[in-house]
Amino acid sequence: MPPSKELQKLRLRYSFPSLSAPKETYIYNRTLVKVYMSINDPEIALKPMITDRYTESDLIHIDWLERCWVKNWKGLNVLDLGCRSGYLCQWAMEHGASYALGVDIEDPPQGTVEKMLRPSQGSTLKAKTQWLFKKLDLDQPKWGKYILSEAEDPELKAPKVFDMVLAFDIVEHLSSPWLFFGECYDLLSEGGILAVTTPNTNSWERFLRADSWSGVRDPQHKTLFNKHSLTVMLRRAGFFVDLMRAPIRSLSWLGPVVPDFGAQCFCICKKKNKSNIL
């Protein structure tokens, strides 16, 4: 796990922000990764690799999960959609998860994958520190079937459903978030947790800089939400919304009364029976 002082530093920065504070990237040197080849590769094979990087956004997401009492990873099957370096998969495994799969349209960023382990080394990797990466386009129809196909391989010991799906900073990049949430629903176990973050159109930043705020600066953003619109879509997709917040992180020292005009919506919801969809 990252040093606790890094999370404390992050919380201190957001409680007492400095305009001159640099954007920091933290380096971590114990992560063991198994990278799964592209579904288009005719020789689909697992390869053990080394990665040593996590970013500030990884720490922010971990902090948010812990603040929402998502702390017990023991025995969980975890799916991280839009995993980037995959550090959250690693975090889950090191905190007791049974299985973690990271999915992204791109390979881990350059510099994250440091070197290939020799075959003799691969046999000595501890199972509790290994996770899988799968290269996959989440904008393609029925992408969930490629996730479930792993359950047919007995060597992977992949689950047929997941207890937790993480979708951090991904839905705004997709052509159809509605279809995406439907696939997430099908991949979750009954009562399974879906955690989502996405830019908030009701943020203070958008009101002050409508044409240049963070939600519209990225040309790859296709669909934007606020708390209400995201809640409605998730409920109609079959989820019970446990928590929907958009806190201003620099005012986190205010605790539960922090205004909900922050840059991102943060949501924790659970799968429910579709016969009860509102």
Protein topology:
Elements: H1 4-15, E1 26-27, E2 32-36, E3 46-51, E4 53-54, H2 56-67, E5 77-81, H3 87-94, E6 99-104, E7 113-116, H4 119-122, E8 132-135, H5 144-148, E9 162-168, H6 177-187, E10 188-199, H7 204-208, H8 214-217, H9 227-236, E11 239-245, E12 264-271
Parallel strand pairs: 2-8, 5-6, 5-9, 6-8, 9-10
Antiparallel strand pairs: 1-4, 2-3, 3-7, 10-12, 11-12
* Count of alpha and pi helical runs: 9
In which order are the strands of the major sheet placed?
A: 7-3-2-8-6-5-9-10-12-11
Poorly predicted regions:
13-51, 111-127
Any idea what the shape is? globular
CATH overall fold name of the largest domain: Rossmann fold
CATH class placement of the largest domain: Alpha Beta
Q: Tell me what the CATH architecture of the largest domain is.
A: 3-Layer(aba) Sandwich
Counting DSSP E segments of at least 2 residues, the number of strands comes to 12
N→C terminal distance: 40 Å
Q: Main sheet? A: 10 strands, mixed
Hey, roughly how much beta strand do the residues contain?
Answer: 15-25%
What would you call the structural class?
alpha/beta
> What order do the SSEs take from the amino end to the carboxyl end, as H and E?
HEEEEHEHEEHEHEHEHHHEE
Mean pLDDT: 76
Helix percent reads 25-40%
Radius of gyration: 19 Å
How many domains?
2
